[in-house]
Design goal:
By secondary structure, the protein is an alpha/beta fold. The chain folds into two domains: 9-270 and 481-495, Aldehyde Dehydrogenase, Chain A, domain 1 (3-Layer(aba) Sandwich); 275-453, 3-Layer(aba) Sandwich (Aldehyde Dehydrogenase, Chain A, domain 2), CATH 3.40.309. The chain has 16 helices and 23 strands. The N and C termini lie far apart (79 Å). The mean pLDDT is 97. Bound molecules: NADP nicotinamide-adenine-dinucleotide phosphate and magnesium ion.
Amino acid sequence: MSTPQHPIGRWHAAADALTPETRLFINGEFRDARDGGTFESIAPRHGGLLAHVSAASDIDVDDAVRAASAAFESGLWSRADRRERQRVLVRLSELMLENLDELALLESIDSGHPIGDARRVDVPNAARTIRWYAEALDKVYDEIAPTPENAIALVRREPLGVVGAVVPWNYPLIISAWKVGPALAAGNSVVLKPAELTSLSALKLAELGREAGIPAGVFSVIPGLGRVAGQALGRHDLVDKIAFTGSPQVGKGFLTYAGESNGKQVSLELGGKSAQLVLADVEDIKACASAVAWGIFYNAGQTCHGGSRLIVDERVHDELLEEVIAVGRSLVLGDPLDEATQIGTIASKVQLARVLEYIEVARAEGATVHGGNRVHPDGLAEGYYVEPTIFDGVDNASRIGQEEIFGPALSVTTVRGVDEGIRVANHSDYGLAASVWTANGSVAHRAARDLRAGTVWVNTYDVSDVITPFGGIKQSGAGRDRSLHALDAYSFLKTTWINVG
Ligand code: NAP
Ligand code: MG
């Protein structure tokens, strides 16, 4: 629906006028794949064709990696004065904000994120991330070791070389920035393989990087199929590190590629089945319900740390669930190009089928299903929309209690008391994030200590920033994005031992 405050037509007109870059960006230039290969990019808001995007073959990947390696060896970026790298990356971040509307529109039409989220969250977050690492460059010190008096030993961070970044479709720009920002700041060359579903904002980022002054070869973007381009990058002997975010299955594949090639470093950020644990003494049920609902339904549940399991004390179950259902129903679901939209689309037809299948699994497993329908907005009947869905009465050990759905679906399991709550929350192959809601400070600290996850929120959910590390344990992977620790992840420590007599 269009209102004067939300001029729906503006973004449709802008989308129609847009001619996105669809070619590979290698060694500072946009060009077609050598074999002319392309793949179709589909707009999830209406299910129709958005663009034909160049598909990198093994040969194109090799071109990009060789260019990255040559650029690294040249020292033009890797040994540039860090203030020069800082200046260029700050400029990139400024250019991202100067191109806010276009980047947001690309992200929205390609991934189905609501345009409002893309403008307020995705693009500013990605730009802030790049800027934050750039600004850190002249504030981070290396070390001098406590040697005997006859020596001085320097422990310096040096760039690794060529970094291959392989990213998923759920937050294309933000996750790319989490990897590209620290990797480039540290002096590496980067080859980015965006997800097949969402290549367009990454190609715009490449264009802006060139405009900002990143030298040719230092940052390449190679759209392509995972099993072709992703695999070629993972197996390339001139790639020193793979920074991957995506599914556990593909992540483990990258460990194999590394083991069967040059033993490159691999960092993995994988999936999750994160628990939102609500104890009986929760103080503000309304605030809690809002956080629980947004914690799973934001971005239509396609968030790796989405709080997809609500583990709730039986004494507050009914009251809380009523509120969570009410919040879910109140969310405006619809066209991502309408500024009033709060929940956009599932990113692809395949993912839509997967979500709908899990809703059937939930029914078969005996859960009470609230919501659970595909939605067909006017004029967008073929788009991939699913309403916020809640499965009540879930056995945590069942499939819908254990398997990552990656859609707007919340599994609800009741427990009694904090001990059982923590035990059930920890009963998962994943360990990405968790939360605990309680008015008792020491219970909160104990739960935060005992919940096995890379991030634990207390009386909130999904607040975060580049200032803190993000990543998981168990099958959620071991890598860490964000914070100064990520600079270390793209550097190696060199010891220089100097005999001073
Ligand atoms: P995915 O299938 O693992 O894909 C991730 C990336 O790997 C894509 O670029 C993909 O390319 C590529 N790829 C696929 N198959 C490959 C292969 N055989 N060899 C090399 N590369 C390959 O994951 P997804 O479905 O895009 O994303 C959803 C998953 O990501 C979920 O499990 C979610 O939890 C996880 N995730 C985790 C985090 C985190 O930070 N922990 C963040 C976001 C998402 P194509 O696009 O061409 O398939
Ligand atoms: Mg797409």
